[in-house]
Design goal:
CATH superfamily of the largest domain in chain A: P-loop containing nucleotide triphosphate hydrolases
Largest sheet of chain A: 6 strands, mixed
Helix content of chain B: over 70%
Number of helices of chain A: 10
Number of strands of chain A: 10
Distance between the termini of chain A: 30 Å
CATH topology of the largest domain in chain A: Rossmann fold
CATH topology of chain B: ABC transporter involved in vitamin B12 uptake, BtuC
Order of helices and strands of chain B: HHHHEEEHHHHEHHH
Number of domains of chain B: 1
Oligomer: heterodimer
CATH class of the largest domain in chain A: Alpha Beta
Number of strands of chain B: 4
Largest sheet of chain B: 2 strands, antiparallel
Strand content of chain B: under 5%
Structural class of chain B: mainly alpha
Distance between the termini of chain B: 55 Å
Strand content of chain A: 25-35%
Amino acid sequence: MGERKTLLKVNDIHVYYGSIHAIKGVSFEVNEGEIVTLIGANGAGKSTTLNTVAGLLKPRTGTIEFEGRPITGMSASRIVSLGMALCPEGRRVFQQMTVKENLEMGGFTRQPQELPAALENVFTRFPRLKEREKQIAGTLSGGEQQMLAMGRALMSKPKLLMLDEPSMGLAPILVEQIFDIVKELNDAGSTILLVEQNAQMALSIADRAYVLGTGRITISGDAAEVLADDRVRAAYLGG
Amino acid sequence: MVAFLRFLINGISLGSVYAIIALGYTMVYGIAKMLNFAHGDVIMVGAYIAFCAMAYLSLPPILAVLLAMVACTALGIVIEGLAYRPLRQAASLAVLITAIGVSYFLQNAALLIWGANPKSFPSVFSVGAIRLFEGELVISSETILTIISNIVIMIGLTLFTGRTKLGKAMRAVSEDKGAAELMGINVNRTISLTFAIGSALAAVAGVLLCSTYPILMPTTGSMPGIKAFTAAVFGGIGSIPGAMIGGILLGVIEILGKAYISTELGDALVFAVLIIVLLFKPAGLLGRPVREKV
């Protein structure tokens, strides 16, 4: 592990929603080339953590560093241009825009002349999106919308891709497909921070894992170790 | 028959002014989800600036219009930044009351600067007129210019929101601010840009309005502002073509109603039609019904 460069370093962040203390001192890091997963029950603070890293929420205390550079309190739109993309929970594609326009928005921070190659790259990865290029995103199926949301996040050519519950609400066969794609993206060089409720699947493709329980990291380690941990098996993997 | 045509053309011309104002309402509503009730007063400010540029600086009309557009653009950005941006997370009622406050502020500032006496707006575009049916039907150059401006603005905005990067970003922000921010779009700057465009259009509308109805006073913008807001709701608030259609229909209904039914009831008629349309199509003519999707 030591030879890999640390891409993201989250150090003891505390996040509040009004007076509710949602994240109570979370620290973790993601190294270049890894798939790191953040698992935990509903309401444990997984999405809050990702949204804070992405700049949509501000931590009250604690620091976040990306490539050694402090990004705590920076706006989400600035953070994107530094090379971090979040594919948000619930996909949140622009329903009334076409597939192509959604992808163009994903490439908002890039130079116009880089867009055709980036689009081509996404279409190669998701041929289905190419077929539906001119279709309004709101008319796509759930699986297609997830592909679009991931493709859109890839358009900014992120050094770190954060995926928030990519399998949510999808049929099992599609869940498999999405996880295969995540693995492929990682093999192609992307660093991935994956938040999932589907702990089994997430742990099976991840290098390392952190388990969140009500605002704190309770267990962390190599994915295989975490998968074998009795506490994790009891709490998240159904025995 | 000729009389009817004349009323119809006057209606389209007045409706074109409403449509240009309604575009400002509808774009701002689409992106900031707020009703900017001060928009009508920006029209008045635009008209006063054009008036001063022509009357005191003796600038040619076209330069006066450009000056008014620049000033209103700045005014729109300042209003948004000072009055509305701090309330981005506040309850919509607070924003609405603030907008009404800004409206009164602008009216009273105009009262202070330009006084209560109405100014007589000079004839801006007297290039001549088209005469049809042996001179029975006269279409003034103001009318033609108003309708052409409306068409040009409509085409321009459609191309802007459909083809350009910033225009698409504007649509993205109006759909989902959080997701737009995650794309790297600066949401605050995009909202500012929307206010800037809406206010520049308000300046154009102010000059067009005052060249047809040449009485300018601090309250000049309120009634057209409310009617244009009605037009925006009529067409479907948030929809650019809706604002256009709503505006023109409203203008035609108003003029025909005043001509054939009752001059006094003309305005009431406009609002009666609005109520009837909303009873049957609550989202307006081209509005999308709001669906909450989980």
